[in-house]
C-alpha cells in the first residue's frame, strides 16, 4: 500500500443530501410555476427564499463536518456556531465499523464508526464517500502505528 500524506481531511458527500437538494429545487420550481400560472408574486418570493436558505444550510452542514486523519489520531469536527470536536489516538482504537443502507450502497457512501478501548460511544462520521476504502486505510495506519510503537519499546 502506498504511503498516505497526512493529515487527511475528509468531508461529507453532497450525494448524501440529494433528497434535500431535490426538495429545495421543488420549492423553487413551485414558486416559478405559481408565478407563471397565477401571477402570484409573494408566494414565489417566499418559496424561492426558502429554497435558497435550505441550500445554504445544506452547504454549511457539508462544510462544517470534517474527519481528520493525522499521524497518530483521528479527529471529527462538526458545527459552525456550536463546534464539537471528538478525537481519539490510534492506540485507543479497538475497532472500525461501517454501515450502509440500500440507498447509501447505491450512491456510494456510508457511516464510519470508530470504537475506542474505553468503551464509550463510538466516534461516527456520516455520509462518507468510499467508506470501505477509508476504513481500510485507517486500519492500515492504526496497525502501522501500533507496530512502530511496539518496536520502539
Structure description:
- The chain has helices at 18-38, 42-64, 102-107, 131-152; strands at residues 8-11, 66-69, 73-78, 84-89, 93-99, 109-116, 123-129.
- It is α+β, with helices and mostly antiparallel strands and 153 residues long.
- The strands form 2 sheets. A 4-stranded antiparallel sheet has the order 1-2-3-4. Strands 5-6-7 form a 3-stranded antiparallel sheet.
- The protein is elongated, with a radius of gyration of 21 Å.
- The mean pLDDT is 89.
Helices, strands, pairings?
Blueprint: E1 8-11, H1 18-38, H2 42-64, E2 66-69, E3 73-78, E4 84-89, E5 93-99, H3 102-107, E6 109-116, E7 123-129, H4 131-152
Antiparallel strand pairs: 1-2, 2-3, 3-4, 5-6, 6-7
**CA radius of gyration:** 21 Å
Quaternary structure: single chain
**Mass-distribution shape:** elongated
Our count of helices gives: 4
Strand content: 25-35%
Low-confidence stretches: none
How far apart lie the N and C ends?
25 Å
Strand arrangement within the widest β-sheet reads 1-2-3-4
Coarse structural class? alpha+beta
The biggest sheet amounts to:
4 strands, antiparallel
Topology as H/E string? Answer: EHHEEEEHEEH
How many strands?
7
Helical content band: 40-55%
- Indicate the mean pLDDT: 89
Please outline what is shown here:
This protein has 4 helices and 7 strands, in the order βααββββαββα. It has 153 residues and is α+β, with helices and mostly antiparallel strands.
